[in-house]
Amino acid sequence: MMSHNHLVKYTNLSQHMNSHENRSVPFCNCEYPAVTRSRHTAKKVERCKCGEDNSTRLDWIWDAEGGHPDTKIINGTEIVFHPVYSQGTAVIRGTQPLQYGRHHYWEIKILSALAGTDIMLGIGTDKVDLLSHRFKFASQLGLDDQSWGYSYRGVTQHNGQFKYYGKKFSQGRIIGIYVDMFRGVLEFYLNRRSQGRAYANIPLDSSVRIYPMICSTSAKSAMKLINAASFADSLVFSCMKVISKYPKLLKQTHSIPGLRKFTEDLWFLQFKEPKKTDEFQRNNLLLEDEALLCGMKKKKLDKMISQSQQQNTTVEYTNEEDIYKDMMTAEHSKKRTTSNSSSGSSDDEELAKMVSREFFCNH
Q1: How far apart are CA 162 and CA 20, in angstroms?
Q2: Mean of the pLDDT values across residues 305-318?
Q3: How many C-beta neighbours within 10 Å does residue 227 have?
Q4: Which residue of 6, 37, 207, 334 is 20 to 30 Å from 145, comparing CA positions?
Q5: What is the DSSP string of 7-41?
Q6: What is the pTM of this model?
Q7: In this structure, which CATH number among 2.60.120.920, 3.30.70.920, 2.60.40.10, 2.40.110.10 belongs to the domain 4-237?
Q8: What pLDDT, in 10s, does the model give residues 227-239?
């Protein structure tokens, strides 16, 4: 039977995944052609090229030879999952493993509307069985400790554990994947804006081969690899990471001929950092087991302990009810000594208001 804490986490995870406020906006305002448009209308819509001119470098492409039978790979860059209908989960990986000691960055443009059980982008080791869920609908990337995935629902998964992460994505979005194979860090970008560090436990053992991966359960879902590059971990790279955080300094770097090449090669470092919204912070708070501190003011508890230490006394609590009782008593005594009695409000009413304001959860 599901425990209360797990039930709360599952409920809030579902709310997070279904929240309309968590949806992202398209990268551009282009009209994306529907899969069946040519069958029903004579209107011709040109394929959007927005975002594809920053870099055309492709250090690797999608593996067509060892590809999933339920996928269609075009020119090594464009993938159509389940071209006819979907009967499970299809997984595709890149042709080359990520090199250790280097920084890897690649971008994927979502060409179709996404729906269904899950569509995930990320990485996985050579131990991932690409056909294990061919006839099962699953969020395959991150089901075990051999892969890491970012879902189109806005959450990440590793070792079977989902966690709140970024915004949802669908047609028209550009997803960037940054893997630091020198420090073992994985980070995702949405429309060229960092979503923050996702994981910092990527294995750095040279015997483990890690590949770029995508999985999808959605019929006729299509996406395209628009660039893929790697860079050595060097002083130049570290300096550019710092310079990119300061717009004025970055502008000066662009104007110096000898440094302009570095800014052009490391263009993806110049993206904006994420903003920690109230919703993001609240959702992350719900992931922690902080039921005991849910409605109480920790500073007041610390103050009580400090006062007791000054008086050479000890404070022992057997359960949270004792904490609430002592804190309410202290607050109530303070109210009675510092405030004048007002007409129409009794001590009991004042205590009830204080308890309601200070000691109950709002979740």
Answers
A1: 19
A2: 48
A3: 23
A4: 6
A5: HHHHHHHHHHHH-GGGBPPPSS-PPPPPTTHHHH-
A6: 0.69
A7: 2.60.120.920
A8: 999 999 999 999 9
pLDDT band at 275 (very low <50, low <70, confident <90, very high): low
Mean pLDDT of the region 202-230: 94
Q: Which helix (H) or strand (E) holds 333?
A: helix 320-338
* pLDDT of 349 over the 90 cut: no
Domain ranges of the chain: 4-237, 298-358
Give whole-number Cα distances, 170 to 27, 106, 122, in Å: 10, 18, 16
Pick the closest to residue 119 from 90, 148, 158, 87 (CA basis).
90
Helix axes 298-310, 320-338, angle to 10 degrees: 80
d(CA 110, CA 78): 10
Query: Distance between CA atoms of 260 and 263, rounded to whole angstroms?
Result: 5
Residue 14: Cβ within 10 Å count:
11
Instruction: Let me know if 249 is exposed, middle or buried by CB neighbors in 10 A (0-12, 13-18, 19+).
Output: exposed
Rounded distance between C-alpha atoms, residue 108 and residue 77, angstroms: 9
Q: What is the residue type of 31? A: E
pLDDT at 272: 65
**Left, alpha or beta for 11 (phi > 0: left; psi -120 to 50: alpha)?**
alpha
Mean pLDDT of 299-316: 50
pLDDT of residue 1 exceeding 50: no
Give the chain's length: 363
What is each CA distance from 15 to 12, 20, 121, in whole angstroms? Answer: 5, 10, 22
β-bridge mates for residue 92, sequence order: 214
